[in-house]
Amino acid sequence: MIATQQLTFAYPTQSNVPTKQFTFPDFSCADGETMLILGKSGRGKTTFLHLMALLLKPTGGSIQIHNQEISHFDSAQAAAFRAANVGIIYQKPHFVHSLSVLDNLLLANYLANKSLAKEKAQHLAESLGFADHLAKKTTQLSQGEQQRVSIARALMNNASVILADEPTSNLDDDNCLRVIDLLKTQTSEIGASLVVVTHDQRLKDVFEKHLYL
Ligand SMILES: Nc1ncnc2c1ncn2[C@@H]1O[C@H](COP(=O)(O)OP(=O)(O)OP(=O)(O)O)[C@@H](O)[C@H]1O
Protein backbone atom coordinates (compact mmCIF):
# COMPACT_ATOMS: atom_id res chain seq x y z
CA MET A 1 0.00 0.00 0.00
CA ILE A 2 1.20 3.46 -0.86
CA ALA A 3 -0.48 6.68 0.28
CA THR A 4 0.34 10.37 0.35
CA GLN A 5 -1.24 13.26 2.26
CA GLN A 6 -0.88 17.01 1.70
CA LEU A 7 2.26 16.46 -0.34
CA THR A 8 4.00 19.65 -1.47
CA PHE A 9 7.19 20.28 -3.41
CA ALA A 10 9.19 23.01 -5.19
CA TYR A 11 12.34 22.57 -7.28
CA PRO A 12 15.24 24.67 -5.97
CA THR A 13 15.28 28.24 -7.32
CA GLN A 14 17.88 29.25 -9.89
CA SER A 15 19.04 32.88 -10.40
CA ASN A 16 16.14 34.22 -8.34
CA VAL A 17 13.57 32.87 -10.79
CA PRO A 18 10.64 31.73 -8.63
CA THR A 19 9.77 28.06 -9.19
CA LYS A 20 6.36 26.49 -9.27
CA GLN A 21 4.94 25.24 -5.95
CA PHE A 22 3.30 21.86 -6.37
CA THR A 23 0.45 20.70 -4.11
CA PHE A 24 -0.61 17.16 -4.92
CA PRO A 25 -4.02 15.64 -4.23
CA ASP A 26 -4.18 13.03 -1.43
CA PHE A 27 -3.87 9.59 -2.85
CA SER A 28 -3.79 5.93 -1.87
CA CYS A 29 -3.33 2.67 -3.73
CA ALA A 30 -3.87 -0.56 -1.77
CA ASP A 31 -1.98 -3.85 -2.17
CA GLY A 32 -3.00 -5.50 -5.43
CA GLU A 33 -4.69 -2.30 -6.65
CA THR A 34 -3.85 -0.23 -9.71
CA MET A 35 -4.05 3.53 -10.15
CA LEU A 36 -3.65 5.65 -13.27
CA ILE A 37 -2.50 9.24 -12.77
CA LEU A 38 -3.33 11.45 -15.73
CA GLY A 39 -2.52 15.04 -16.55
CA LYS A 40 -1.28 17.27 -19.31
CA SER A 41 2.42 17.75 -19.97
CA GLY A 42 4.09 19.80 -17.25
CA ARG A 43 1.40 19.22 -14.59
CA GLY A 44 3.91 17.42 -12.34
CA LYS A 45 3.21 13.72 -12.98
CA THR A 46 6.89 12.71 -13.04
CA THR A 47 7.58 14.95 -10.04
CA PHE A 48 4.77 13.24 -8.09
CA LEU A 49 6.11 9.80 -9.02
CA HIS A 50 9.66 10.76 -8.05
CA LEU A 51 8.41 11.97 -4.66
CA MET A 52 6.67 8.62 -4.10
CA ALA A 53 9.90 6.86 -5.13
CA LEU A 54 11.92 8.98 -2.66
CA LEU A 55 14.03 10.31 -5.52
CA LEU A 56 12.93 13.81 -4.45
CA LYS A 57 12.28 15.02 -0.91
CA PRO A 58 8.92 16.72 -0.32
CA THR A 59 8.77 20.19 1.25
CA GLY A 60 5.70 19.11 3.21
CA GLY A 61 3.17 16.34 3.75
CA SER A 62 3.62 12.62 4.22
CA ILE A 63 4.17 9.41 2.26
CA GLN A 64 3.57 5.92 3.62
CA ILE A 65 4.45 2.56 2.15
CA HIS A 66 2.98 -0.33 4.16
CA ASN A 67 1.97 2.18 6.84
CA GLN A 68 5.60 3.19 7.35
CA GLU A 69 6.22 6.93 7.14
CA ILE A 70 9.06 7.44 4.65
CA SER A 71 8.98 11.14 3.73
CA HIS A 72 11.65 12.05 6.30
CA PHE A 73 14.19 9.42 5.15
CA ASP A 74 17.69 10.69 4.36
CA SER A 75 19.21 9.73 1.00
CA ALA A 76 20.94 6.54 2.28
CA GLN A 77 17.76 5.31 4.00
CA ALA A 78 15.74 6.20 0.90
CA ALA A 79 18.12 4.28 -1.42
CA ALA A 80 18.01 1.13 0.75
CA PHE A 81 14.22 1.29 1.16
CA ARG A 82 13.67 1.93 -2.54
CA ALA A 83 15.91 -0.96 -3.67
CA ALA A 84 14.03 -3.43 -1.45
CA ASN A 85 10.44 -2.19 -1.77
CA VAL A 86 9.89 -0.11 -4.90
CA GLY A 87 10.16 -1.05 -8.59
CA ILE A 88 10.48 1.98 -10.87
CA ILE A 89 9.91 2.17 -14.60
CA TYR A 90 11.51 5.46 -15.60
CA GLN A 91 10.52 7.59 -18.58
CA LYS A 92 14.12 7.03 -19.79
CA PRO A 93 15.45 3.61 -18.79
CA HIS A 94 18.91 4.45 -17.22
CA PHE A 95 20.61 1.12 -18.03
CA VAL A 96 24.25 0.30 -17.36
CA HIS A 97 25.41 0.25 -20.98
CA SER A 98 28.51 -1.91 -20.38
CA LEU A 99 26.31 -4.77 -19.06
CA SER A 100 24.12 -7.19 -21.00
CA VAL A 101 20.33 -7.04 -20.85
CA LEU A 102 20.36 -10.06 -18.48
CA ASP A 103 22.92 -8.46 -16.17
CA ASN A 104 20.92 -5.21 -16.09
CA LEU A 105 17.98 -7.28 -14.81
CA LEU A 106 20.12 -9.11 -12.24
CA LEU A 107 21.60 -5.82 -11.07
CA ALA A 108 18.21 -5.01 -9.51
CA ASN A 109 18.59 -8.12 -7.29
CA TYR A 110 22.19 -7.25 -6.47
CA LEU A 111 21.38 -3.68 -5.43
CA ALA A 112 18.61 -4.95 -3.14
CA ASN A 113 20.96 -7.53 -1.54
CA LYS A 114 18.85 -10.37 -2.90
CA SER A 115 19.97 -13.57 -4.61
CA LEU A 116 20.24 -13.37 -8.39
CA ALA A 117 16.96 -14.59 -9.90
CA LYS A 118 18.09 -15.83 -13.35
CA GLU A 119 14.98 -17.97 -13.89
CA LYS A 120 12.71 -15.04 -13.12
CA ALA A 121 14.67 -12.86 -15.56
CA GLN A 122 14.27 -15.53 -18.26
CA HIS A 123 10.54 -15.90 -17.51
CA LEU A 124 9.94 -12.12 -17.63
CA ALA A 125 11.96 -11.83 -20.84
CA GLU A 126 9.84 -14.54 -22.46
CA SER A 127 6.57 -12.96 -21.26
CA LEU A 128 7.65 -9.53 -22.47
CA GLY A 129 9.03 -10.83 -25.77
CA PHE A 130 12.75 -10.03 -25.51
CA ALA A 131 14.21 -13.45 -24.52
CA ASP A 132 16.30 -13.46 -27.72
CA HIS A 133 18.02 -10.26 -26.63
CA LEU A 134 19.20 -11.25 -23.12
CA ALA A 135 22.88 -11.53 -24.13
CA LYS A 136 22.90 -8.22 -26.05
CA LYS A 137 23.89 -4.82 -24.74
CA THR A 138 20.91 -2.57 -23.98
CA THR A 139 22.15 -0.06 -26.58
CA GLN A 140 21.50 -2.68 -29.29
CA LEU A 141 17.77 -2.71 -28.50
CA SER A 142 15.02 -0.57 -29.99
CA GLN A 143 13.30 1.98 -27.71
CA GLY A 144 10.23 -0.22 -27.38
CA GLU A 145 12.42 -3.23 -26.45
CA GLN A 146 14.30 -1.11 -23.91
CA GLN A 147 10.99 -0.07 -22.39
CA ARG A 148 10.00 -3.73 -21.97
CA VAL A 149 13.38 -4.53 -20.35
CA SER A 150 12.81 -1.61 -18.01
CA ILE A 151 9.44 -3.09 -17.02
CA ALA A 152 11.03 -6.48 -16.37
CA ARG A 153 13.73 -4.86 -14.22
CA ALA A 154 11.06 -3.20 -12.05
CA LEU A 155 9.48 -6.63 -11.44
CA MET A 156 12.71 -8.47 -10.54
CA ASN A 157 12.51 -7.99 -6.74
CA ASN A 158 8.80 -8.65 -6.15
CA ALA A 159 8.56 -5.04 -4.91
CA SER A 160 5.49 -4.05 -2.92
CA VAL A 161 5.02 -0.88 -4.99
CA ILE A 162 5.58 -0.55 -8.75
CA LEU A 163 5.78 3.01 -10.08
CA ALA A 164 5.70 3.49 -13.85
CA ASP A 165 6.37 6.74 -15.71
CA GLU A 166 4.84 6.68 -19.21
CA PRO A 167 5.53 2.93 -19.63
CA THR A 168 3.77 2.77 -23.01
CA SER A 169 5.01 5.96 -24.67
CA ASN A 170 7.22 4.09 -27.18
CA LEU A 171 4.90 1.17 -27.83
CA ASP A 172 2.52 0.47 -30.70
CA ASP A 173 -1.10 -0.43 -29.89
CA ASP A 174 -0.52 -4.20 -29.75
CA ASN A 175 2.53 -3.94 -27.50
CA CYS A 176 0.86 -1.23 -25.40
CA LEU A 177 -2.02 -3.51 -24.40
CA ARG A 178 0.23 -6.55 -24.04
CA VAL A 179 2.67 -4.73 -21.78
CA ILE A 180 -0.03 -3.18 -19.60
CA ASP A 181 -1.77 -6.52 -19.28
CA LEU A 182 1.49 -8.14 -18.21
CA LEU A 183 2.29 -5.33 -15.78
CA LYS A 184 -1.16 -5.64 -14.20
CA THR A 185 -1.00 -9.45 -14.05
CA GLN A 186 2.49 -9.54 -12.58
CA THR A 187 1.79 -6.88 -9.96
CA SER A 188 -1.46 -8.55 -8.96
CA GLU A 189 0.36 -11.92 -8.65
CA ILE A 190 2.84 -10.42 -6.18
CA GLY A 191 0.12 -8.32 -4.48
CA ALA A 192 1.89 -5.05 -5.28
CA SER A 193 0.35 -1.61 -5.73
CA LEU A 194 0.77 -0.41 -9.32
CA VAL A 195 0.83 3.33 -9.98
CA VAL A 196 1.14 4.51 -13.59
CA VAL A 197 1.52 8.14 -14.65
CA THR A 198 0.79 8.94 -18.25
CA HIS A 199 -0.82 11.16 -20.80
CA ASP A 200 -1.42 8.09 -23.01
CA GLN A 201 -5.19 8.19 -23.45
CA ARG A 202 -5.14 4.52 -24.57
CA LEU A 203 -4.68 3.53 -20.92
CA LYS A 204 -7.85 5.21 -19.62
CA ASP A 205 -10.05 2.23 -20.38
CA VAL A 206 -7.73 -0.39 -18.92
CA PHE A 207 -7.45 1.13 -15.42
CA GLU A 208 -10.44 1.44 -13.11
CA LYS A 209 -9.09 4.07 -10.73
CA HIS A 210 -7.95 7.43 -12.13
CA LEU A 211 -6.44 10.49 -10.47
CA TYR A 212 -6.14 13.75 -12.44
CA LEU A 213 -3.39 16.28 -11.77
N1 LIG B 1 14.82 19.40 -12.20
C1 LIG B 1 13.92 20.36 -12.38
N2 LIG B 1 14.19 21.64 -12.01
C2 LIG B 1 13.29 22.64 -12.16
N3 LIG B 1 12.05 22.46 -12.69
C3 LIG B 1 11.72 21.22 -13.08
C4 LIG B 1 12.63 20.12 -12.96
N4 LIG B 1 12.00 19.00 -13.44
C5 LIG B 1 10.78 19.40 -13.84
N5 LIG B 1 10.61 20.72 -13.63
C6 LIG B 1 9.41 21.50 -13.94
O1 LIG B 1 8.33 21.00 -13.17
C7 LIG B 1 7.14 20.96 -13.95
C8 LIG B 1 6.55 19.55 -13.92
O2 LIG B 1 7.43 18.66 -14.56
P1 LIG B 1 7.11 17.11 -14.66
O3 LIG B 1 8.19 16.47 -15.46
O4 LIG B 1 6.85 16.56 -13.29
O5 LIG B 1 5.73 17.14 -15.48
P2 LIG B 1 4.93 15.98 -16.25
O6 LIG B 1 3.49 16.18 -15.93
O7 LIG B 1 5.53 14.65 -15.90
O8 LIG B 1 5.23 16.32 -17.76
P3 LIG B 1 5.39 15.37 -19.07
O9 LIG B 1 4.03 14.73 -19.28
O10 LIG B 1 5.75 16.34 -20.15
O11 LIG B 1 6.46 14.36 -18.78
C9 LIG B 1 7.51 21.42 -15.35
O12 LIG B 1 7.08 22.77 -15.47
C10 LIG B 1 9.01 21.31 -15.40
O13 LIG B 1 9.58 22.32 -16.19
UniProtKB/TrEMBL annotation:
Q: Which SUPFAM superfamilies match?
A: P-loop containing nucleoside triphosphate hydrolases
Where in this chain does the record put each ABC transporter domain?
2-213
- The keyword ATP-binding is annotated on this UniProt entry: yes
InterPro entries documented for this protein: AAA+_ATPase, ABC_transporter-like_ATP-bd, ABC_transporter-like_CS, ABC_transpr_LolD-like, P-loop_NTPase
* Example of a GO MF term: ATP binding
Pfam families this protein is in? Answer: ABC_tran
SMART domains from the entry? AAA (SM00382)
Q: Which UniProt keywords apply?
A: ATP-binding, Nucleotide-binding
Q: Which domain of life is it from?
A: Bacteria
Protein name per its UniProtKB record: ATP-binding cassette domain-containing protein
